[in-house]
Structures are given as C-alpha cells and as structure tokens.
Amino acid sequence: TPVLAAEVSCLPEVVGAGGDVLPLDDYGAWAEAIEPLLSDPAKRSSAARRALGRARDFSWALTARRTAAVYEEAIRARRDA
User: Fold this and answer.
1) Residue 5 is inside which H or E element, if any?
2) In angstroms, rounded to a whole number, what is the distance separating the alpha carbons of residues 33 and 5?
3) Which of 4, 22, 51, 77 is 20 to 30 A from 10, alpha carbon to alpha carbon?
4) Alpha-carbon distance 12 to 16, whole Å?
5) Phi, psi (rounded to 5 degrees) for 69
6) Max Cα separation, the chain?
C-alpha cells in the first residue's frame, strides 16, 4: 500500500524513503499526492514497492536486538560509573 504521512511527530523519520510526507494542513498537497495514486496503477505500484522496502527495515527481531544493546550499554555505563 502506498504511504502518505503528515509532517508531524516522528512520522517523517519512520516513513523515510518509503512514502511521501506532506504538511498536515495543506489539503491541496494531499489531494495532489492522492490523485495519481488513484488514477495511475504504475505510480501506485511503485509507491507500494517503496513502502514495502521501508517496512523491511523494521522487525520485532531487530527491535529486540537493539533494545538489548541499549540495556547492555546502560549496564556497562553503570558499572563504569
């Protein structure tokens, strides 16, 4: 599925190159971004591939490894303090 997200909070960071980020209250920009996704199957398919590519950067296994690394670093820092 193609991704359109608002330029708020952490959404731009999460979306990355996997979608398009738009100003929250610029309704014209949203309409301009949505129209080609509705009318052009090739554009929609390309946008969906970008979104899937970005989604592959996220997994529970990776999250668990990164969380464990942060905990291990905190433990090391406490020992060294």
Assistant:
1) strand 4-6
2) 11
3) 77
4) 6
5) -65, -40
6) 60
